[in-house]
Prior knowledge:
This protein is α/β, with parallel strands linked by helices and 263 residues long. The protein has a single domain (3-261), classed as Protein-Tyrosine Phosphatase, Chain A (Alpha-Beta Complex), CATH 3.90.190. The chain contains 13 helices and six strands. The protein has a six-stranded mixed sheet. Helix 2 links the parallel strand 4 (53-58) and strand 5 (77-80). Helix 4 (109-125) packs across helix 11 (222-236). The model is unreliable at 88-94 (pLDDT under 50).
Amino acid sequence: MSRLMAFEKLNNTRDLGGMPTADGRRIRSGKLIRSGHLFASSEADRAALAALADAVVDFRTEKERREKPDPQLAGIAYHHLPILNDLTEGVTREREADEKAISLLMRDAGRAKGYMCGIYTGFVANAFSVEGYARFVRLLLAERDRALLWHCTAGKDRAGFASVIVEELLGVDRDAIKEDYLRTNEHLMQEVAALREMLRRRTGQVSEEAELAMGYMFGASEEYLDAAYSKADELYGGFEGFLEQGLRVTAEEKERLRHMYLE
Length: 263
């Protein structure tokens, strides 16, 4: 399991170090870190980030970045690799997208669930998304002294799927990948509670349908990952095919990644 890191304001920042692989090795600590947005970080958090990482990958849209920019820290290289190229309710978290998300929440929980499954199939089927993740793998292959940290807004979907890619490349067991992905739900409880309160203020109530839809829109679900894996099976003959054909990772590069990040 990834390790939750101690920050004052960053609730879903986790080190992949320690996760076991199928061949008996483990991911090195302090090298691969996933997170939500860094905008809310405290002064102490920023000092810790500067000591921890030498590169940050931001998967958010340009509009998200303008609304809540990353803190610019000396000694850290910043890479903007947007995975979604438009407003996406519940995922990108721009103000306009949040308005659409609320409207969707109030209508149909089943639609919300299907919508999120569609986001995940897009991670492996949409050319824009696939190219973003392919460029992310190029950054993984670069030698660095400290950690590579990647994030989106909540650290759940775009950054979560990037973590799945990393763990698949390094040979982590599929069940362990899914279990770690679902841990996001534990770390975002406060954020989801805040979103629920926002919905109450705007509507005067939260219906049972809206509560269920909110869980789908703002939580992690194994069904979402299964949708991505199924689409990879359909398009590439499996996730291994997605890594090789979609993300253009060669056997030699995969071996290099394992040499770099496993112990």
